[in-house]
Please model this.
Amino acid sequence: MDLLSAICAVTSLHLRREPPELSSWIQTAEQSIWMNLESPTVPRLQTLLLSIYYWVESGRFQRAFMLTALAARFAAAMRLNYERPDLDSTAREVRRRIVWSLKIIERYFSVGLPEFELCPIEAIYINFPKSEDEFESSRPREQSAYKLYTRLEGIRRDIMKLGRGLHPLDQPLSSLVELIRHHENILSEFSAELPYGSRITSAQVASLLDNPWLPRLLAMHVSWHQANCDLYRILVPGYPDAAPSVVLDAVDPARLLFAEEQCLKHAANAIQILTTLNQESASRHMLEFDTAICAYHASRLVLYISRFGKSPNRPTPEFAASRAELCVVALKRFFPSCVPVAPIIKELESSVVVFLQRHNHDHDTWGASSSTAGRPPQANTNLSHEQQTVSPAAETQRLAIHSLLRQAEFSDAEDDHPLPTRAQSAAEPSQGFPTPPSNAPTSAPPVIDNSLNTLDTSIIPASSASGVGSQLPSNDPGITGANNSWWGQNMPLAMGPVPDVFEDGVYPFLSWTGRQDWEWLLESPR
Model:
């Protein structure tokens, strides 16, 4: 009954219905956990996992995070991380899927931070899940998509740990290229097992529209491209997730250029998968949250490489912006009411606007965008030393906008009075930021054209050399004459007020407010 209540609650969320029983369903499910806290069982753990999922989808990230720790304790106490040969095949498969589902939930809070790793892969001694095809053959083939996806989880986690481990370095690492090559080989060998090869075509995506396993199959392919992006972005100078400049300065420039090209290729492929699905499918598929995360990172890479890349084949700013806009359109369609995805959509929208404003501003200032292309962003010299300097610990702990741990906004206060959330901070000045003087300008943040929010994917062809940039002014009043404003004195690249979502990225109460996802947008090339 408790498990059934949890299933009903989660199903109601996906159906976007709120029956009168909804609150009682989740209360019944969660109450059974607390009443039997000392007696974990597989059904209770399944109930707990569904409850966690419910709270994530409801935006209660703090509660979901704490319950995830409890679920990890349940699994460890029941020793689900070990195989049980004495059980039948179905029971063993249930145990495997519980553990790997817990591992996937864990990644949505943080990846590569040992203090938040609740179920270390090194302590998992069970096999990966089996293919659905081994349990039933009457439906379209699943082709081991879930098994391959969980394997990619471990690969991506190792790559993230490598990237985080490089941030504190203050001298070259002679073994860096060798480490990169090691992961390259792993990904190359893995690609041979992908059902549709290393690149699933638009025609193949279209052929899967009636396959009930489509979300898994696409998530698997997008995840593989993301793993490659995670790896090669380490070698993209100036990128927020790249190795420090002192490390990259010792790497062969040809190797850096190759990494940039690989980032662009895999990011473009990931975007193509999502946009093809949006264009070809008449149904709104229930996609995995990780698909939105991958689309976000792919869009960022395309925008960054367009602005600072060194490859002669890098995309034009207009084309890069159009790719990001297509992702936004697809995310709005497939995640219309998904609370965890909302910040991703908001930041991508704001990023495109600021990206094109900066492009137009640079074009007007220096005459031609090509004169500054191929150079990584330059640190803003108007910032104080404290603002420019980020401790290695803070840089290592930086979390992306999609991290549920970052969105949870946990307080480090020593009393019972909660610190204000971002929504509350928007209504009143925060003690952690300088407050604008009473005579400071109150111009509105950049406005996102409503037409962009309802963009028809058919109006931006793949070969487009001009797109949404034409809808933005090249001489933005927020850029010119802003040097004497409060924003010009306190924000990078005096270009007027920064969109609200960017203010969210420097929330003062967290320890992981190092260099943020969007900061390069506000920097100028050297």
User: Anything to note?
Assistant: The longest strand covers residues 377-378.
